[in-house]
Write a structure and sequence with these properties.
The structure is a single chain. The chain is built from 15 helices and 10 strands. The strands form 2 sheets. An 8-stranded parallel β-sheet has the order 3-10-9-8-7-6-5-4. Helix 7 runs parallel beside helix 8, helix 12 packs antiparallel against helix 13 and helix 12 packs antiparallel against helix 15. The longest helix is centred in the C-terminal third of the chain and has 19 residues. It starts with 9 loop residues before the first helix and ends with a helix. The relative contact order is 0.12.
Length: 347
């Protein structure tokens, strides 16, 4: 997208407070049209709690393999991974789709764990996932993709909605586009309550621009079905621009929410025509300390320091001296390191 294509007309700020409606995933009502997307290695329980407290009305867990969901015990590991956000926040669990028979039972266990919805991943572009014929691989296998979603739907009670994550195809070929729309129509017929579409192909992974014109075409094709857009959403203005330009019903914020959970409240403020300043250094400090505390509660003191290093690197982007702060967090390996870095840079 060019800078011009991301421009939001001045009238939009006045219109969005009226025009933005809640999302309906069947009987589940998400009160504002934003979702924290599933993020491999990131959207764990602590990140989802922080996002929810700062305005995300719905969050998604990392993608989980069906066999893992069924085999993980009931100890600490299950407690970490099969843990809804809590605090009365809406949260879905994402299942990595494959053409196997374990999907219904896995979906059922996720619902029993307390997740409000189950999201089926047909989009993951990671090579090892593709080699195992899961995730984005199914964007080239319409029958298998629709069958996977139908199996999840069959495994769940009627009051637990199924949503689907897709990419705009395996590649830029006409065949991939035809497969995309065959899958879209098929999963909606199979009972999907909503579809999130990432505007890049599987082959693109995260390179190049997300095709927002394609999202507009998808929403036009889907009619009244709920469609969320994803891709290149790094600021509040990006989120409003996508809704305005494409007509999608809402947005799923992925990498734009790592280290920037304030994006959810900023979108609400901007849509209402209110100020949406960047969080102060003091605001950042309080959230970063709480994020670490929640992570330590989840993973224990030994694992938390190295695990939180990647979050610190993302949080550093908002700091006025971001490069220096980033270099500090690269060296974090313990609670003491984290607190020392925060004390040094976030007074």
């Amino acid at each position: 997208m060019s800078e011009d294509s991301r421009h939001i007309p001045a009238r939009l700020a006045a219109a969005t407070s009226v025009g933005f409606r809640s999302l309906h995933f069947d009987n589940l009502v998400v009160e504002y049209p934003m979702v924290q997307a599933a993020l491999a290695g990131y959207s764990d329980w602590p990140m989802r709690v922080i996002a929810s407290r700062l305005g995300a009305p719905f969050t998604l867990s990392e993608a989980m393999l069906p066999r893992f969901v069924l085999q993980v015990g009931r100890g600490k590991r299950a407690g970490r991974l099969l843990r809804p956000t809590g605090e009365r926040a809406l949260c879905g669990a994402q299942l990595m789709a494959g053409d196997d028979d374990e999907l219904p039972a896995a979906a059922q266990r996720l619902a029993h764990a307390g997740f409000h919805a189950v999201d089926v991943n047909l989009a993951c572009p990671v090579k090892k996932v593709l080699r195992r014929r899961r995730g984005g691989h199914l964007m080239g296998q319409p029958e298998a993709a629709v069958r996977a979603v139908a199996r999840v739907r069959d495994g769940l009670p009627p009051d637990v909605p199924v949503t689907v994550k897709m990419r705009r195809g395996l590649d830029d070929s006409l065949e991939s586009t035809e497969h995309f729309f065959a899958i879209l129509d098929g999963v909606l017929r199979a009972g999907a309550a909503a579809v999130t579409v990432h505007g890049r192909t599987v082959r693109q992974r995260y390179e190049g621009r997300s095709s927002w014109p394609f999202l507009r075409e998808v929403k036009h094709h889907a009619g009244s079905a709920v469609v969320l857009g994803s891709g290149d959403l790094f600021t509040a203005r990006d989120c409003l621009a996508m809704i305005h330009q494409t007509g999608v019903d809402g947005v799923a914020v992925a990498r734009g929410a790592i280290g920037n959970p304030w994006i959810f409240s900023q979108v609400r403020a901007l849509a209402l025509g209110e100020p949406c300043p960047e969080p102060s250094v003091s605001d950042q400090r309080e959230v970063m300390l709480e994020h670490y505390r929640l992570a330590e509660e989840t993973y224990g003191p030994q694992r938390t320091g190295p695990m939180m290093r990647k979050f610190g690197i993302w949080y550093a982007r908002l700091h006025p001296r971001s490069e220096e702060v980033r270099l500090t967090f690269i060296r974090v390996g313990s609670q003491e390191d984290w607190h020392r870095a925060v004390a040094q840079w976030y007074r």
